[in-house]
Amino acid sequence: MRWKWLFVFYWKRLLKSKLYIGASFSFFLLLAVRFTLFFTDPYNMESYGDIPHEVFMLVQIVSLFYIVWFYLLYSNELRYGVSSWFADGYRILLEKMSALLAVHALYQGIMLMMSCGVFSIVYLFVGVEPSDLYLSLLRFLAVYQFGPLVLTVLYGVIIALLLETKKVSFFAILLVWILTGPMTTELFIDLSKTVHARDWASLLFIGKHAIQRAYDSYIGFEVDRGGEWKWAAWFLSLVGLALLSSIRFTQTRKERNAVLKAFLVFPFLIVLTAYHSLQTNTKAFTRADQTTELEEYRQMKQETNADLRYRIQSYDLSLHGSRAVVRVALSQLETNRPTFQLYHLYPLHSIEADHQPVKFTRNGDLVTVWLPKRTSTLTFSYEIVDTALIPYTNGRIVLLADRAWYPKRRASHMYRTYEYRMAGMTVWDGAFTDQFFPDETYTFTLNVDGDVLFCNVPKRGTVYRGKAQAVTLIKGQGHQLVDQGYEIIYPADWPHMAERAPTVIRQMEKTFRHVQQIASTAVSSLPNKIVFSSFGLSSFLAHDHLVYNTDDLYGIDQYIMEQNFYEKILRLSVPPKGSRIMYNEWISLATRWLMQKNDLPVIDWSSKSEWFESQPQSVQKQIESVYSEFQSLDVDQKQQLLRTWYENMDDAWTWDRVIEIMQEVKGVGGRH
Questions:
Q1: Which one of 63, 362, 447, 486 is least enclosed by Cβ atoms within 10 Å?
Q2: Where are the transmembrane segments (predicted)?
Q3: Considering the domain boundaries, does residue 506 fall inside one?
Q4: Please, what is the average pLDDT of the chain?
Q5: What Cα–Cα distance (Å) separates residue 649 from each residue in 409, 618, 642, 654, 661?
Q6: Is residue 580 part of a domain?
Q7: Nearest to 119 by CA among 218, 52, 208
Q8: Over 50: is that where the pLDDT of 672 sits?
Q9: CA distances from 378 to 73, 314, 351, 361, 469 (A)
């Protein structure tokens, strides 16, 4: 009964506090300001799922006022030692702490529902379709808004118990606020960049490692059991510290011993919850995990020994949970050491030939199988795990055809890195090696549990079966629609795609036809299956499906009006030829021609590709002269030059030859 009256008492104190209510009101006022700035930005991003990342800054601001209020409230109660006037004074002190925590948690629960309601209203207003995105939004806000704000009461109470009304208390509040806020990873970015998701040091951060990204296409919001276990570990640690800090207020030895016995349980619970956090935490959204993975590819030898003297007839893939079993049917096997490409971060449990285990070695993404005799089938058993390049979170996974998520007949690693100079600095970049697939096709049979959002292989009964160059499989959060004969998949946070898709498809078809006027494309026509994304996925074009990433710069219908759209269509459809610099400058000039062809203003006729600065001065002057002469040509002459250039380009192609052809084109008025 006394606890009930304490709860009511603190609830009334909270509602009457100008500091507490003012801080809560400021949270929503600042949120409204952020929404206003977001929607008045002419370069509004496509990914509306990233809007909730604003709560990290808001929580950081508001939490300071909460800590101060709880400290002042509790320290004033301790100042006169009222609890010592009663025989059960220590019990009263604990009841006050628990009642105050319960009141604050209830109020923050109300704020959580209000925040979720505000975001949901905004999503419905902009046209984000109803889906489980709204439920995962609630879970995201519970982990990154409700959780950190609930802990503020414990910060204030602990500081009050330890320092009471001493002036140094405010310095302690400031220090705790800085070190425990969700913005810690940004404030100490040099440190957070080195902490992996499953390092013990990651437990020091209650916020995200990279706060700018809250949502990934098809994977959803960054919420997993790891974040919830981490909050539980923090909560238990602070409750234990509060108990330990209050021990000097005990009045009897019996009370002191009871507190010490209770406290002994906390280290076990804290270690248990922290361990579960590390085991279930995702790697997909951390800076350090991605940096480490890309660094591994930088260290891998690009020139590798691979024996590809075999053919693949068919694949039989079984994916149940995280366990993958792939049966590969072989033909024309002319070696006992066949090499396959398989993602090196997937634990490979075994390889069997005719139901017998065989030895294998791994070199990066290349797996060499040691066969004692020739065989017609190989069975790979391995684990699908969460990584930076292929995230696997909450049962959602995006297995793209350009990634080696199943064994492929390839002689290179899945991902390659390269460097070039930009603005006088060395810059590293990378790309997946399967951007352009071989023309050969295989028969695929996929047996997959759970709901599948997209697969380029048609579904026949309970399995997916058909012929394809490679397979893309998406089990995630997104939407489907059919428009003009195209099967379109798009992220759950994209609004009004039913209205915007026709414009996008028409522009893609038109641009693809224009590209075919200047170069031979990897596929003859735009595939009827298209997967859109706004971040994280690569882009590639196969005979039966297209994966297209807008890079988050614009809405998809705005993006088709910009330079990057035309450059990407070129890079997706036109295979590289000649030297890297020659191909990239051809792409750069062809992009400008496409924009001119579509009556769009060209940003800069003199702009060069990213590889320009890495060239000698003499070559740079030649390239500059090509750009200057190219601008003076009419549209038809530009088309003739680009077509002739690409048809004849090889490793021996020189800039003198480009200039020579340009003069020929100008001399005959575009007829060559």
A1: 362
A2: 20-40, 55-74, 99-126, 146-163, 170-189, 231-247, 259-278
A3: no
A4: 88
A5: 28, 20, 10, 9, 12
A6: yes
A7: 52
A8: no
A9: 70, 11, 7, 15, 19
Rounded to 10 deg, the angle between the 147-163 and 54-79 helix axes is 30
**Residue positions counted in the chain:** 672
Q: Given 420, 453, 476, which residue is the final one in a domain?
A: 476
- Residue 47: pLDDT band with limits 50, 70, 90: confident
Residues 343 and 436 reside in one and the same domain: yes
Q: Is the pLDDT of residue 560 over 80?
A: no
DSSP 283-326: STT-HHHHHHHHHHHHHS-SS-------EEEEEEEEEETTEEEE
Q: Look at residue 560 and tell me if it is in a domain.
A: no
Per-residue pLDDT of 14-23, as tens digits, reads 999 999 999 9
Residues 266 and 376 in one domain: no
Contact between 562 and 588 under an 8 Å Cβ cutoff? The reply is: no
Q: What is the pLDDT of residues 330-376, one digit of tens each?
A: 988 999 999 999 999 999 999 999 889 999 999 999 999 999 988 99
Distance between CA atoms of residues 273 and 601, nearest Å: 57
Least Cα distance to 664 among 646, 640, 647 occurs for: 640
Residue 335's CATH number: 2.60.40.1730
* Domain assignment of residue 564, yes or no: no
Task: Look at residue 419 and give its three-state secondary structure.
Answer: strand
Number of compact structural domains in the chain: 3
Are 79 and 224 in the same domain? yes
pTM: predicted TM-score of the whole model, two decimal places = 0.89
Are 123 and 252 found together in one domain?
yes
Let me know whether 657 and 584 are in one domain: yes
SS3 content of the chain, % helix, strand, coil (to 5): 50, 20, 35
Identify whether residues 256 and 337 lie together within a single domain.
no
- Domain of 648? 576-669
- Section 210-217 average pLDDT: 86
Strand partners, 431: 416
Q: How far apart are CA 372 and CA 381, in angstroms?
A: 19
Q: Nearest CA to 349 among 337, 364, 360?
A: 360
Tracing tokens 């047996």 back to the chain, one arrives at 447
Contacts of residue 178, defined as CB under 8 A and 6 or more positions apart, other chains included, come to 184, 187
Q: What type of residue is 482?
A: V
Query: Is residue 19 domain-shared with residue 100, that is, in the same domain?
Result: yes
Cα distances (angstroms) measured from residue 423 to each of 420, 614, 622: 10, 10, 19
**Domain's final residue, options 257, 286, 315:** 286
Residue 281 has pLDDT above 90, yes or no: no
